């Protein structure tokens, strides 16, 4: 089972390490000490916390609205032209970009600094994992997906 240090868990949750420590102190998330004495969170425990936090955000939404696949964030940039608008949204550590009609952006009165939801509707979502870079021996040939 993967173990995450408090700072790593905080980054994955989109909160500060201090917030993660407060949650641990309050019993909201269980931690254990690793061999070095650092506080860690098991991957399954972090997944449970992420689902709990997402559920809290869902309850804050308007009644009658589907909350699956909604990601709350803040508009950081909007670039409008005659037909389309490019909208950038920061949701925790994630930057989401959407291309919508200018008319829709104007009707929503989108401006940097306002809260908005990114609504994801997709038939295919890919999942990738981050692997540590391997030490290469000799000349690099071909392509390797890490």
Structural class given helices, strands, pairing?
alpha+beta
Question: So what's the overall shape?
Answer: elongated
Percent of residues in beta strands: 25-35%
Average predicted local confidence, pLDDT: 80
The end-to-end distance, rounded to whole angstroms, is 21 Å
Radius of gyration: 20 Å
Poorly predicted runs:
140-146
Q: Note the run of SSEs as H and E.
A: EHHEEHEEEHE
Give me the CATH architecture of the largest domain, please. Orthogonal Bundle
Number of helices: 4
Q: What name is given to the CATH topology of the largest domain?
A: Multidrug-efflux Transporter Regulator, Chain: A, Domain 2
Instruction: Give a quick account of the main beta sheet: strands, pairing sense, barrel closure.
Output: 4 strands, antiparallel
Tally of distinct domains: 2
Percent in helix:
25-40%
Explain the layout of strands and helices.
Layout: E1 3-5, H1 6-13, H2 17-25, E2 32-33, E3 39-42, H3 43-59, E4 70-80, E5 84-91, E6 94-101, H4 102-108, E7 115-119
Antiparallel strand pairs: 1-3, 2-3, 4-5, 4-7, 5-6
Helix pairs in contact: 1-2
Describe the 3D structure.
- The chain folds into 2 domains: 3-59, Multidrug-efflux Transporter Regulator, Chain: A, Domain 2, CATH 1.10.1660; 70-119, OB fold (Dihydrolipoamide Acetyltransferase, E2P), CATH 2.40.50.
- The chain is 28% helix and 28% strand.
- It has 146 residues and is α+β, with helices and mostly antiparallel strands.
- The strands form 2 sheets. Strands 6-5-4-7 form a 4-stranded antiparallel sheet.
């Amino acid at each position: 089972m993967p173990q995450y240090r408090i700072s790593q868990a905080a980054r994955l949750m989109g909160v500060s390490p201090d917030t993660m420590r407060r949650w641990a102190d309050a019993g909201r998330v269980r931690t254990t000490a690793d061999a070095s004495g650092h506080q860690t969170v098991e991957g399954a425990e972090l997944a449970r916390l992420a689902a709990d936090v997402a559920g809290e955000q869902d309850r804050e939404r308007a009644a009658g609205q589907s909350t699956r696949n909604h990601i709350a964030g803040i508009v950081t940039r909007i670039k409008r032209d005659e037909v389309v608008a490019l909208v950038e949204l920061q949701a925790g550590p994630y930057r989401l970009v959407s291309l919508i009609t200018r008319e829709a952006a104007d009707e929503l009165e989108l401006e940097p600094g306002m809260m908005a939801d990114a609504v994801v509707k997709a038939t295919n979502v890919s999942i990738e994992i981050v692997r540590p870079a391997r030490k290469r021996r000799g000349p690099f040939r071909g392509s390797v997906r890490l």
